[in-house]
């Protein structure tokens, strides 16, 4: 366990780690068929860590992410976000958790088409009932952070994919969440743009000390993380430190051949 | 293949299909029930007349039942060849007096014939209890009414008659026809000598019923009779009489049909909007079919067959709902005092209503089908469809022209004094043009309207108002069409409301000027049509003698159904003192001079009638009554809104020489001290309640209130019909909201993912719904008031005195209803949005 201060250094730490997962199980059942998507996951993510999650298709990456994001319930085990247990959370509490402690970055950007970039960034705080006047300043700061100051008044349809994803990153940071969740954030971008977005994300993360969990299929993208966790058949299959894409590719290849 | 594709498509979109069908169901149900309602009314009269006039072949009475026939006519009729038997009748309305309770309601009334006890029985009545005698104070009553009032042979019962309360003994109970009972007034028979005394009818007969000799030919006898009957007296069969009454309610029926047609129009419009959405939703699927080789024709047919299926299913269900709705309408009509018997369904309704329903559906789907057939095969692979560009300019010009034509058509109808088919069509098409014009302009103005409306919402909410307004403005055609659907129903409500408030407002303004008397004694429910009870001259004397009474005068009233004054009324007054009781106003003439001429046997004509007939002062007009036809000089053209001012007025002498009815309709009363009329009022009310319970005492305020109530009551049924149209258009709102929720699945999912609560999402949809319903309400009120304004101006141009008064009650009603309906329409779509699976919504493209 490590303690980590946020960039401004004033936040006191309430819990040692951002995410703690113990014996997490999740079974999807529809009618007579049931799929055990997660079969007992143990995972700890420290504050300020940038963790990438990789694994073959169907290994449970998205399921894990949705559970951490309080979008999906689970059957067994325990999950804590910032010290708060997600067991038995009702819809209202889950909504508040998503609003105040989680930031989402989606593969398909998911910006609201009728709102400008700036308004999209402010959206999470507007939802929380904060006054627009105060929020503008913070939104502009974030847009500057992701390099889009001159695009504040543009609608999503007037932005490129990479720019939209940057707005989406800014939006996820608006409420300074405990945990950022990104499901294949570069999946819908070409390699160069994706890489630029990731650099930016990485930059922001190290500067402000955010905790990020990112699902990806791309070893180069994963190498930007501080460590890479592998899933296979609903279980953690191992992990390697980030930095070297080749090592990640090797591990992945070995994983595929394992029985 | 087309059929199975269409069928599959209906099933795949069950929710949408259900909403569409529901619109057709309601439209068809309404049309069906309106047809059945008029059928019920017609057959009630038919049955009534065939049972009341069982063995009667011909009825001899004043033209259209007006006035009384001279007694000498009876002998002439008797001696006509082919006439076997006759029965003379002296008629009046009596009203049961219950233990000190003031009665006089419709259900207390008995339509009473005074007949000679030895005269042959020509009605279809059959004695079922008691003895068939009519001596002295005996009365015979019909079974249905006697039962509901607990009267048996031998019982004593008090009845109010034109000359006061009289006690009768029930001698017999009779049954008419199949035991007809329409839950309202009853029928009674008393001795003719007693009737002459009690009904204040010393001379004349209300009618003479004739039975023909066996083998005599009806038409021969009728033409023989016509030779000997004085002018103004007719011989008619009971069927003719029923037909006359049915012809009178025809106008009412036409209005009912029109409103029912409007709700089908709304139903067709719902289909149009809905199919447009379906086509938009199925772009890729249709493009796919086209790449697979389906021709345009097949695509078009597929949509039309789907519409046909919906139309058929909706129409069949519509008939089922219509059967129930008919019951509701019949009881509603009965509650405003229309005589209606057992519900009878019009056979043609089973054919016409579904044909109209299917046509409305297919017609509504026509344009969407053509649009769908124009979708290029390439659409199968394109992800987005470029929305058709809005041709704003063209919409504005065409729309404005249609609105102008529409208002002109309505004005034409309203300013007409007679109503041949072209005029009626001008009015009906006027309304349709007006609505079509507004529908055309809708997409241009509705986005602005929504923006304006959403202002308070945007100011008071963080994101709900903003999101709702964005959604509503994102697809201006869809939003405008949905609001326009609502606009139609609401506009008709506002138009009816405008008419009502204009009449009420103008009448009470005028009455404030006209009425100088302090109290009016008149029959209960006066002004609703039908035979009215009368009151004797003796009552005027009694009233004059009351302490605190300064003076009183009697007037007589008769509704004219033929001749010069058709659809107006005749009014008699005492020219020597009438000016004390009312401010009568005449065009370019002094009231005193006009009254002096009335005393000499001249008449006055109401302004509207004079304009219609191009009558001027000094012209002669002919009034036909059972006492003869009279050529009378016009002394003045009268303006004003009181019943008298809207009638042909004459002196009591002139009246008797034409109509021969003694009984008075109204007594106008002046108090010694107009500032403190209370003591007189108490006395007067006590007197009338005790001796003339079919009459009531009204202050001027009460008269105004009564007219207002009567107008509102007549309009109530139109409101109910329009409510159905509004409900149909609400289905359109639900449909649009569901479509918007479907199309915005991703956005709603994102909101939920980043922290919107279910309630927040619900509120967005509710806000969106409110924006739609309010846009419909605002458009509807504006269009409706324009419609009402054109109508009122038209009526004013026809010579009637009416000025436009904004329909404040209707506006308030619409405002409240549109909020309530907005929330209701949002329930299902909001629920769907709130229950959305967030993961699915945000994960896939
Ligand atoms: N809603 C659901 N209902 C039923 N089964 C589901 C559902 N969601 C996921 N699954 C199943 O759970 C397992 C894990 O799915 P998950 O989406 O977490 O995999 P993933 O690792 O994200 O795969 P990918 O790399 O393809 O996105 C799969 O077998 C999948 O079929
Ligand atoms: Mg996945």
Overview of the molecule:
The complex is a heterodimer of chains A (259) and B (845). Chain A is α/β, with parallel strands linked by helices. Chain A has a single domain (49-73, 87-257), classed as Rossmann fold. In chain A, 36% of the residues lie in helices and 26% in strands. Chain A is built from 8 helices and 10 strands. Chain A has helices at residues 61-68, 91-101, 117-127, 132-145, 161-173, 191-208, 219-222, 245-257, and strands at residues 17-30, 33-46, 50-54, 76-81, 84-85, 102-105, 179-183, 212-215, 227-232, 235-241. In chain A, the strands form 2 sheets. In chain A, strands 6-7-8-3-9-10 form a 6-stranded mixed β-sheet, with helices on both faces. In chain A, strands 2-1-4-5 form a 4-stranded antiparallel β-sheet, covered by helices on one side. In chain A, β7, α6 (191-208) and β8 (212-215) form a beta-alpha-beta unit. Chain A is globular. The model of chain A is unreliable at 1-13 (pLDDT under 50). Chain B is an alpha+beta fold. Among the domains of chain B are: 1-54 and 255-386, no CATH class; 70-229, no CATH class; 534-693, no CATH class. In chain B, the strands form 3 sheets. Chain B has a 6-stranded mixed beta barrel with strand order 2-3-8-5-7-6. A 6-stranded mixed β-sheet of chain B has the order 18-13-12-19-11-20. In chain B, a hairpin with a 2-residue loop joins β6 and β7 (164-175). In chain B, α22 packs across α24. Classes of the chains: A alpha/beta (259), B alpha+beta (845). Magnesium ion (MG) binds at residues 61-62 of chain A.
Write the layout of secondary structure elements.
The complex is a heterodimer of chains A (259) and B (845).
Chain A: E1 17-30, E2 33-46, E3 50-54, H1 61-68, E4 76-81, E5 84-85, H2 91-101, E6 102-105, H3 117-127, H4 132-145, H5 161-173, E7 179-183, H6 191-208, E8 212-215, H7 219-222, E9 227-232, E10 235-241, H8 245-257
Parallel strand pairs in A: 3-8, 3-9, 6-7, 7-8
Antiparallel strand pairs in A: 1-2, 1-4, 4-5, 9-10
Helix pairs in contact in A: 3-4, 3-5, 4-5, 5-6
Chain B: H1 2-12, H2 14-52, E1 58-62, H3 72-78, E2 83-97, E3 109-115, E4 126-130, E5 138-142, H4 143-148, E6 156-161, E7 164-175, E8 186-191, H5 192-198, E9 207-212, H6 218-228, E10 233-236, H7 238-248, H8 250-281, H9 283-291, H10 296-335, H11 349-373, H12 392-415, H13 421-460, H14 464-474, H15 476-514, E11 519-523, H16 537-544, E12 549-559, E13 569-573, H17 578-581, E14 585-586, H18 591-599, E15 603-606, H19 607-613, E16 620-625, E17 628-639, E18 647-651, H20 652-658, E19 666-671, H21 678-691, E20 695-699, H22 700-743, H23 745-753, H24 758-797, H25 808-834, H26 838-843
Parallel strand pairs in B: 3-8, 5-7, 13-18, 15-17
Antiparallel strand pairs in B: 1-9, 1-10, 2-3, 2-6, 2-9, 4-7, 5-8, 6-7, 11-19, 11-20, 12-13, 12-19, 14-17, 16-17
Helix pairs in contact in B: 1-10, 2-7, 2-8, 2-10, 2-11, 2-22, 8-11, 8-15, 8-22, 10-11, 12-13, 12-24, 13-14, 13-15, 13-24, 14-24, 15-22, 15-24, 15-25, 22-24, 22-25, 24-25
The structure holds adenosine-5'-triphosphate and magnesium ion.
Magnesium ion is lined by residues 61-62 of chain A.
């Amino acid at each position: 366990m490590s303690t980590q201060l946020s960039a401004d250094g004033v936040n006191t730490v309430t819990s040692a780690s951002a995410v703690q997962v113990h014996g997490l199980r999740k079974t999807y059942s529809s009618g007579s068929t049931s799929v055990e998507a997660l079969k007992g996951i143990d995972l700890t993510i420290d504050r300020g860590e940038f963790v990438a999650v990789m694994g073959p298709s169907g290994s449970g990456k998205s399921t894990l992410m949705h559970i951490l994001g309080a979008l999906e319930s689970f059957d067994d085990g325990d999950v804590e976000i910032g010290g708060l247990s997600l067991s038995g959370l009702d819809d209202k509490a889950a909504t508040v958790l998503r609003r105040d402690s989680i930031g989402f970055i989606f593969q398909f950007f998911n910006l609201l088409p009728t709102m400008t970039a700036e308004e999209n960034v402010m959206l999470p705080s507007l939802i929380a009932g904060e006054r627009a006047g105060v929020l503008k300043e913070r939104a502009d700061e974030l847009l500057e952070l992701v390099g889009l100051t001159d695009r504040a008044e543009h609608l999503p349809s007037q932005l490129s994919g990479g720019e939209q994803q940057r707005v989406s990153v800014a939006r996820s940071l608006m409420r300074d969440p405990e945990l950022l969740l990104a499901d294949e954030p570069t999946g819908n971008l070409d390699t160069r743009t994706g890489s630029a977005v990731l650099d930016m994300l990485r930059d922001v993360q190290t500067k402000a000390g955010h905790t990020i969990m990112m699902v990806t299929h791309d070893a180069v993208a994963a190498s930007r993380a501080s460590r890479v966790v592998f899933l296979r058949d609903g279980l953690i299959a191992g992990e390697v430190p980030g930095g070297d894409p080749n090592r990640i590719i090797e591990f992945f290849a070995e994983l595929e051949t394992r029985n | 293949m087309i059929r199975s594709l269409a069928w599959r498509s209906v099933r795949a979109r069950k929710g949408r299909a259900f909403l569409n069908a529901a619109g057709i169901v309601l439209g068809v149900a309404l049309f069906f029930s309106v047809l059945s309602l008029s059928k019920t009314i017609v057959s009630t009269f038919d049955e009534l007349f065939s049972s009341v006039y069982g063995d009667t072949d011909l009825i001899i009475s004043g033209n259209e039942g007006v006035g009384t026939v001279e007694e000498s006519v009876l002998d002439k009729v008797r001696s006509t060849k082919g006439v076997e038997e006759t029965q003379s009748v002296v008629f009046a309305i009596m009203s049961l007096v219950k233990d000190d309770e003031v009665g006089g309601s419709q259900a207390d009334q008995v339509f009473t014939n005074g007949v000679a006890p030895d005269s042959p029985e020509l009605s279809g009545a059959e004695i079922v209890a008691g003895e068939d005698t009519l001596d002295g104070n005996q009365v015979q009553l019909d079974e249905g009414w006697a039962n509901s009032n607990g009267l048996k042979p031998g019982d004593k019962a008090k009845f109010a008659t034109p000359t006061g309360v009289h006690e009768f003994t029930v001698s017999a109970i009779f049954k008419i026809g199949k035991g007809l009972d329409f839950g309202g007034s009853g029928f009674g028979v008393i001795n003719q000598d007693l009737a002459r005394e009690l009904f204040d009818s010393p001379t004349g007969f209300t009618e003479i019923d004739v039975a023909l000799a066996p083998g005599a030919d009806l038409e021969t006898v009728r033409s023989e009779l016509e030779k000997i009957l004085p002018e103004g007296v007719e011989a008619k069969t009971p069927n003719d009489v029923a037909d006359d009454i049915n012809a009178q309610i025809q106008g009412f029926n036409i209005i009912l049909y029109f409103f029912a047609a409007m709700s089908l129009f709304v139903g067709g419009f719902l289909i149009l909007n809905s199919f447009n959405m379906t086509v938009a939703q199925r772009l890729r699927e249709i493009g796919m079919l086209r790449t697979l080789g389906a021709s345009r024709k097949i695509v078009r047919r597929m949509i039309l067959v789907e519409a046909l299926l919906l139309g058929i299913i909706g129409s069949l269900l519509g008939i089922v709902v219509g059967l129930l709705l008919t019951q509701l309408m019949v009881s509603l009509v009965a509650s405003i005092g229309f005589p209606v018997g057992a519900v009878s369904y019009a056979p043609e309704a089973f054919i016409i209503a579904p044909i109209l329903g299917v046509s409305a559906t297919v017609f509504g789907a026509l344009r969407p089908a053509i649009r769908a057939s124009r979708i290029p095969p390439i659409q199968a692979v394109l992800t987005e469809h470029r929305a058709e560009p809005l041709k704003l300019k063209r919409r504005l010009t065409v729309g404005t022209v249609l609105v102008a034509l529409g208002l002109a058509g309505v004005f034409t109808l309203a300013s007409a004094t007679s109503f041949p088919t072209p005029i009626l069509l001008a009015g009906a098409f006027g309304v349709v043009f007006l609505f079509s014009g507004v529908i055309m302009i809708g997409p241009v103005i509705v986005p602005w309207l929504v923006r304006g409306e959403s202002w308070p919402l945007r100011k008071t909410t963080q994101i709900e108002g903003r999101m709702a307004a964005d959604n509503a403005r994102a697809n201006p055609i869809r939003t405008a069409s949905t609001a326009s659907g609502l606009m139609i129903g609401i506009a008709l409500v506002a138009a009816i409301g405008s008419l009502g408030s204009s009449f009420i407002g103008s009448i009470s303004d005028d009455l404030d000027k006209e009425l100088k008397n302090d109290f009016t004694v008149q029959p209960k429910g006066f002004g609703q049509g039908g035979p009215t009870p009368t009151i004797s001259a003796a009552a005027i004397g009694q009233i004059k003698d009351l302490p605190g009474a300064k003076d009183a005068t009697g007037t007589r009233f008769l509704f004219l159904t033929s001749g010069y004054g058709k659809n107006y009324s005749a009014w008699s007054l005492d020219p020597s003192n009438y000016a004390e009781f009312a401010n009568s106003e005449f065009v370019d003439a002094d009231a005193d001079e006009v009254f002096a001429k009335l005393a000499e046997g001249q008449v006055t004509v109401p302004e509207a009638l004079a304009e219609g007939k191009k009558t001027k002062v000094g012209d002669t007009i002919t009034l036909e009554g059972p006492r003869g036809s009279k050529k009378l000089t016009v002394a003045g053209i009268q303006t004003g809104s009181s019943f008298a001012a809207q009638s042909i007025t004459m002196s009591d002498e002139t009246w008797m020489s034409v109509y021969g009815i003694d009984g008075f309709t109204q007594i106008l009363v002046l108090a010694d001290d107009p500032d403190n009329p209370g003591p007189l009022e108490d006395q007067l009310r006590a007197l009338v309640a005790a001796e003339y319970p079919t009459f009531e005492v009204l202050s001027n305020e009460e008269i105004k209130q009564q007219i207002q109530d009567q107008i509102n009551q007549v309009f109530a049924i139109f409101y109910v019909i329009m409510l159905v149209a509004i409900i149909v258009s609400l289905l359109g709102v639900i449909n649009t909201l569901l479509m918007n929720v479907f199309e915005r699945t991703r956005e709603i999912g994102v909101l939920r993912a980043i922290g919107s609560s279910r309630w927040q999402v619900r509120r967005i949809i509710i806000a969106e719904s409110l924006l739609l319903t309010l846009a419909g309400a605002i458009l509807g009120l504006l269009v409706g008031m324009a419609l009402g304004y054109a109508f009122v101006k038209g009526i004013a141009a026809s010579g009637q005195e009416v000025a436009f008064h904004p329909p404040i009650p209707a506006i308030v009603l619409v405002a409240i209803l549109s909020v309530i309906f907005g929330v209701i329409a949002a329930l299902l779509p909001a629920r769907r949005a709130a229950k959305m699976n967030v993961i699915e919504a945000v994960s896939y493209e």
